[in-house]
Structures are given as C-alpha cells and as structure tokens.
Write a structure and sequence with these properties.
With about 375 residues, the chain is an alpha/beta fold. It has helices at about 20, 40-50, 60-70, 105-110, 110-115, 135-145, 200-215, 220-225, 245-255, 260-270; strands at about 5-10, 30, 35, 55, 85, 120-125, 130, 150-155, 170-175, 175-180, 190-200, 230-235, 240-245, 285, 290, 295, 300, 305, 310, 315, 320-325, 325-330, 335, 340, 345, 350, 355-360, 365, 370-374.
C-alpha cells in the first residue's frame, strides 16, 4: 500500500576512503554480497515501505547506474505515474564537467521537485545498508507535525567503534538539534544515518534559499544549518545499519553476511531485497575442491580452496588455489596454486599461477578492475 511519501536518494556520497572501488562506478553500484549492489538495499527498503515514487540525484559515472537499474523494473518502479526518475546534472560546454556539490544538480531539476505529488519526502543516501521499514518513522513524523525528522541509530560503547569516527552525530541542547562529527570522545550517542523525513514545502524552501544565497554547494549541509529554523525531532531506527564510507567498512560489512542469522535479517526481515536479475548456471565444485563458511554465487568453477570469503558470479578458482578472508568480484580468474588472503579483487581480474597476494584484517589489499597479475 503506497504512502504519501516521495523517496529521494542522493548519490553524492563521499568516496575518498573507498576510491579503489569507485574509480569506474559510483558508490551506489559497488557490488555487494555476491549478486547485489549497494543501492539495491535503499531502493528495496523504500519500495517495501510503500514508497512508489523515487528520484535519484545522480552526480557522475552514469553508465554503471543506468546499466544496473534501467527503468526500475526489478523494483516494480517502471510505471506510468510515480516510479523511478534519474536526475542528472547539466554539463556545460568548456566547464569542468562535474560541479562541486549536489546543489547544482538540484538546481538543474527544480521543476521536477516542484512537481512532486507527495506532501512529504524521505531524503537518503545509498551507502547505509540495512533492512528498514520506513513506515513507523513516517507515521510518527506526520503525527507529531514535524517539519524535519532526522533518522538516527543509537550507539553504545562508541569509543570502541573506530569504524564510526568522522561520521555524523546529532545532539540536542537548549531545545535545538545540531549535527556534528564523531571524534571518538563519547561512549553513547545518536548516530545520524543521513536520512531525513521532511515536509515537501520545507524541502523546497531550504533548496530555494540555498540556491538564492549561492554559498552552500551541499544539500545535507544546507539542511543541517537550518535545523534551528524548523520543528525538528529524531526517530531511532530499531534495526542494525551498516554504514559504508571506506574500504574497511565495506570489507567488514561484506563478511558480516557470512553469519546466517545476520543474512536472514539483512535480506528478508522487513521485505525482500531486490536486484537486477541475471540468469547463470549452478556453480561447479570440482573433485578435490574445498569450501568453508563462504558465499558462492552462480556460474562459478571452484577447483581450489575457499574459506571465509564471498565469491561473485562467473569466477574461476583454479586447482590448488587458496582464497581466504577475501571478496572476489565477477568474471575474475584465479589460476592454479595462487594464494589470496584478506583481498578485495574487482571485476575482470586475472591472477597468474602461483601468485601470492596478502592484505590484513585492518586493511585488505585491493586489486583494481581489469588488472592482470602474472
């Protein structure tokens, strides 16, 4: 059942700490869990929550996004009213092609935002992974008459969470909310997960003011700087969220799904996670192969040993090869007697016979897309 809520996914995420995987694709389409992309989770969460109209603010590297999402058929978003809409930047001749920030993209698509039929919007990113039902938050937002509701996740023993350093935290002082950065000094705090429920009229007012002032290039900062001007409250999301801003966060989040209980939550708790469907034959496990505590996608040929790893489609692991604590993207070939440990191997990579590649648990070794190591 649809609700009076427009989904807006802002793909202008920071990529400086995960650049190895985003050179040729936006963060939203980084592969995850053997067959998914990061954006699949937010799209599925919105659709499962009754949101039938979703806009994507697209900054750059459009090809990967268009190829994966297309018209949105796999999420039931290929419809005449509502559905999926991609909002691209204007590329001016003789410019630097991509403007700084996401406000220029919003400015280029003001007519679209003004024409939205819903009275409220849900503004999110694509790189917070979870299985979220947004309906309770939306109902509370409407019931309280909030102008803005900031979705949060309660963190305990935060001084031990080095993976959350530098992320947004929200605090209330003297009746006013403010959002700052986590510097590791607080043990218990509310993490802002960059999800905002807003009245459409408030969203448009903030956008217009920001464009008229011409000093703030980022939509999130424009909203945060105006929290004191509106009726604001928070809503604590009661399910686990995996933020992915860095290689380490991506690696840890990926291996978390090897826990069957966590995987059951992530892919099914509040609705199924959908993705682009690709048909492939079953994986072939050759005589002498050995697989332990791993996720293996379809279409692979496994002749060697795989432990505590995630293997995407159409990967060939040769006889005598060993892959441990690693993530191997699709269409990669690992030749006989090669040895991988704590690695992230991008698509279309060839690892030669007998090669040894090692990272460690603190910093996995990343092999770029299309590389050949002989």
């Amino acid at each position: 059942m649809s609700i009076n809520l427009q989904g807006i996914i802002n793909l202008g995420e920071r990529e400086e700490y995960i650049r190895e995987l985003t050179m040729n694709r936006p963060l939203a389409t980084v592969p995850f869990a053997g067959r998914y992309r990061l954006i699949d989770f937010m799209l599925s969460n919105m659709v499962n929550s009754g949101i039938d109209s979703i806009s994507l603010i697209v900054k750059n590297k459009f090809h990967s996004l268009n190829d994966h999402i297309g018209p949105g058929k796999d999420w039931d978003l290929d419809r005449k009213t509502g559905g999926l809409r991609m909002l691209y930047p204007d590329l001016e001749p003789d410019s630097n092609l991509i403007s700084i920030g996401d406000i220029p993209i919003v400015r280029s698509n003001l007519a679209h935002f003004a024409s939205l039929k819903k009275d409220h919007i849900l503004l999110t990113r694509s790189n917070y992974i979870g299985n979220i039902d947004f309906r309770p938050a939306y109902e509370e937002h409407v019931k309280k008459g909030n102008d803005i509701t900031v979705l949060t996740r309660r963190i305990r023993q935060g001084r031990m969470r080095i993976d959350l350093l530098g992320m947004d935290i929200i605090q209330k002082r003297n009746g006013t909310y403010s959002i700052g950065r986590n510097l590791g000094n607080q043990n218990n705090f509310d993490l802002s997960i960059e999800m905002f429920l807003m009245k459409k009229s408030v969203f448009l007012r903030i956008v217009h003011e920001t464009i008229e002032e011409g000093v703030e290039p980022y939509l999130k900062k424009a909203i945060i700087s105006r929290l004191s001007d509106y009726k604001v409250d928070t809503y604590t999301v009661d399910v686990d969220i995996l933020p992915i801003h860095s290689i380490q966060q991506y690696y840890n989040a990926s291996l978390t799904i090897l826990d069957p209980i966590y995987a059951q939550y992530l892919f099914y708790k509040n609705g199924k996670i959908y993705t682009k469907v690709k048909d492939a034959p079953s994986t072939l496990y050759a005589t002498g192969s050995e697989v332990n505590n791993s996720l293996i996608a379809n279409g692979c040929v496994i002749e060697g040993t795989v432990e505590n790893s995630i293997i995407f489609r159409d990967v060939h692991i040769g006889r005598g090869a060993v892959v441990r604590n690693s993530i191997v993207f699709q269409d990669t070939q690992i030749s006989s007697r090669a040895n991988m440990n704590y690695c992230i191997i991008d698509k279309f990579v060839h690892i030669g016979s007998g090669k040894v590649l090692m990272g460690d648990g603190g910093l996995p070794y990343v092999i770029s897309k299309g590389a050949s190591i002989r």
